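Box 4.2: Ligand-aware structure prediction
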Amino acid sequence: MPDYKAPLRDMRFVLNEVLDLDGHYAKLGLEEVNSELLNAFLEEGAKFAENELAPLNRSGDEEGCHFENGVVTTPKGFKEAYAKYVEGGWPAMGGDPEFGGQGLPGSSSIAISEMTGTANWSWSMYPGLSHGAVATIEAHGTDEQKNAYLPKLTSGEWTGTMCLTEPHCGSDLGILKTKAEPQGDGSYAITGTKIFISAGEHDMAENIVHIVLARLPDAPKGTKGISLFIVPKFHTDGNGGVGERNGVTCGSIEHKMGIKASATCVMNFDGATGYLIGPENKGLNCMFTFMNFARLGTAIQGVAHAELGFQGGLAYAKERLAMRSLAGPKNPDGPADPIIVHPDVRRMLLTSKAFAEGGRALVYLCAQLGDQVKLAQDDEERKQADDLMALLTPIAKAFVTEVGLEAANHGVQIYGGHGFIREWGMEQNVRDARISTLYEGTTGIQALDLLGRKVMMTQGQALRNFTKIVHKFCEAHGDNADLKELVEPLAAYNKEWGEMTQAVGMQAMQNPEYVGGAAVDYLMYSGYVTLAYLWARMAAKAQEQLAAGAGDEDFYKAKISTARFYMKRILPRAAGHKGAIEGGLDCMMELDAEHFAF
Ligand SMILES: Cc1cc2nc3c(=O)[nH]c(=O)nc-3n(C[C@H](O)[C@H](O)[C@H](O)COP(=O)(O)OP(=O)(O)OC[C@H]3O[C@@H](n4cnc5c(N)ncnc54)[C@H](O)[C@@H]3O)c2cc1C
């Protein structure tokens, strides 16, 4: 695979031209943040990702993490790269200035997260989870907790984790068993085992702050009896430093299919001292701050693997020679034509490009909405952004990771047999991508969240709010002859989305299980239509720039061309998902569990 090159032109296009972040920041009253500042971050972030992290991606995969007597050592170079990251002030970008942060809005660092993640996903998980811990303590911690943990977490000197999963439960947190017993001094003794904890133990920071779900004695059963705790690896010494060791240790690390350089830990809490965050028994609500953060983070992973698959595939497709173009030789002096002449190779390349760039636009849009949720002055604007973000989060998390995995697979396919061979790096991309559809809520769980909670429980209102936005866009561009072939199918699918939702709702009223049968197809349908909207928006902006003589013609023409490919060759997949939903539930449920085999 060629060296990772940060797609700065495309990032700028989405941030500055499509999403107009300058206008967005001005509206939020953030005068000091603008595209000039963002461009400077992008340049520096790209250098860090390309020069410091990308070179460690393959070696980290080969070496993996080491575990000995409760101590985890990360692969060669990881610790040093993290030290540079902290020294560069990167972890503090979005942090609260009161605790040493730079107070920048989330959208200003989204591209940095994409670049570090694409260069080296395993490495990026260590700082990635810390951001979620910071957001959770900022939102729900007491002043004392904020003062004790936020300065070092914000600077990156300490890292954070998210401790939900237990050996017997991941999706169903209502049955978790970890106990929290009051110790009479305001703290709690936390006892239990958490598994699969990313960055649970490592050698990159002097302290690790675990954000842990546990149950108080006599707590109600299910999700209503879960509370949230801060459990530090080392107690604080009262002066901002580390004190004594707490009763939390790493029992082992997992041997995994991918992201091998990310330590996935079994964490044993043996009466470890923990501090309650937020109200008793409302822990899951508070943890949603972390989870929503992590879901958007995982959506970035989808973009990352699509981008790597595309970059690797494109370089190879231009060089590898095989057979002749059916339209006549394109490389007559050579023994064969480069494989990029073949329609099927183009299909794979364009699919990957469409998912990488479309996914980028969706994730960045979510980050922009996140700014509005946090900073908009107007209540109504804040609420609208919050509702839209709630609807788009499961789509971004699950759809973008599913298609990111598809693109990673296309990357291997474009290399032919060489894609299967380790030294090319394309198979690592697939192995690393595979986890993204599983953690932070599997695709099935995200689909239930979308259809059950976000759509059905709002009686379709959240969806109607979004389809109205899409409808307005289509109306505004309805007279544009050049965009007709893009806007017409978008308008048709957008209308059908609402009708299909009504039909699903009617079926669900008769049989609630219908939602479970429809959910994943519904999510994929929603994803294809959402990306179609973003592709149409990108094409409209590209066309506007061409008409205005903004230069960079090749870039804008490629945008419009990819949008056309998306509408003609990818969006029709949505119809298949609709057909599958209409296939109904009975054919899924009629076989008794004991009759599945033989
Ligand atoms: C490398 C790695 C890193 C991780 N990092 C963390 C971390 O940092 N912190 C953390 O807390 N956890 C972490 N996890 C755990 C991860 O979030 C869970 O594995 C995931 O949520 C799924 O839970 P599970 O494995 O228990 O699967 P299960 O919940 O047992 O699910 C098994 C299957 O059943 C399906 N299923 C379950 N319930 C339903 C339902 N009601 N309807 C339809 N389908 C259903 C699921 O979709 C899935 O396909 C990590 C896991 C891995 C492998």
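In the box above, the bound molecule is flavin-adenine dinucleotide. The pocket of flavin-adenine dinucleotide is lined by residues 162-165, 169-172, 196-198, 256, 264, 435, 438-442, 444-445, 448, 516 (CB under 6 Å).
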